[in-house]
Design brief:
Elements: E1 5-9, H1 14-28, E2 33-37, H2 49-63, E3 67-70, H3 82-95, E4 99-103, H4 110-125, E5 142-146, E6 156-159, H5 164-172, H6 198-212, E7 218-222, H7 232-235
Parallel strand pairs: 1-2, 1-4, 2-3, 4-5
Antiparallel strand pairs: 5-7, 6-7
Helix pairs in contact: 1-5, 2-5, 3-4
């Protein structure tokens, strides 16, 4: 199925946390959206590969995705190998997305950093006709980076105020990963995202991004290339007046 937007993550829940609201909004606008995760999350401290697969499917339904797919790259060993590039090229050529979302290339988790580079390189290589995969060559229009652990100066911010509640519902579908009061025993070990305050920090981050564009909630994005504007006068309409001191 051809897609308008396809987001890649190293693990299930990466995309939902970073740009889930934007994907929900795009689907509401009539665009075909999807998520592809590189691993099954088998190395995670909490949950299991089987549990996370089910959570991934539940989150996809909440978000209205047209496609959700898990690859079989080993968790904790996401590496820039030719084999892994071919796996991502296969996804790109199968779904031919107009734009691709990838995690920001600076992160505390090596899988996230490697995933960012893998997706960027595969997006270019996918357009080379002499790489044979059984599908015709294809290159997306743009690779766009979403925020993970570390902040960046965004190229643009998407207003997700109207869909933020659904974004948080999709995130909470990953119940194995987040804090549950009274939880004890195996699978309750503390992790960064398993802390009681973690979901509140996501909401705070989205509020901060929203404040930068004068709305309730936002998601920031970064592109490596300069953005082309044919009509700056038309683009910078009255909604930008609030930024004037």
């Amino acid at each position: 199925m051809d897609l308008d937007a396809l987001a890649f993550g190293a693990h299930a829940d990466d995309v939902e946390l970073g740009c889930g609201g934007t994907l929900i909004k795009l689907a509401e606008l009539g665009h075909r959206t999807g998520i592809a995760v590189l691993t099954r999350g088998e190395m995670a401290t909490r949950g299991s590969a089987e549990i996370r697969t089910g959570e991934f499917t539940s989150a996809a339904g909440i978000m209205g995705l047209a496609v959700h797919q898990m690859l079989d790259i080993p968790d904790g060993r996401v590496e820039r190998t030719w084999e892994n590039k071919l796996k991502i090229i296969g996804v790109l050529r199968a779904h031919r997305p107009k734009i691709v979302f990838a995690p920001y290339w600076v992160d505390r988790h090596p899988d996230h950093e490697e995933a960012s580079c893998l997706v960027r390189q595969a997006a270019y290589l996918s357009g080379l006709k002499k790489i044979e995969t059984g599908d015709p060559p294809f290159r997306p229009h743009k690779v766009i980076y979403y925020q993970t652990r570390f902040e960046f100066t965004p190229s643009f911010i998407v207003d997700i105020s109207g869909v933020h509640e659904r974004k948080m519902k999709a995130i909470r579908a990953y119940g194995s990963q987040f804090h549950r009061p009274g939880q004890a025993g195996p699978g309750s070990e503390e992790t960064l995202i398993g802390r009681p305050e973690f979901l509140a920090t996501i909401e705070t981050r989205d509020r901060h991004s929203g404040a930068q564009i004068g709305v309730m909630f936002g998601e920031p994005f970064l592109v490596r290339e300069a953005l082309k504007l044919d009509d700056p006068v038309g683009f910078f309409g009255p909604e930008y007046l609030w930024t004037i001191p």
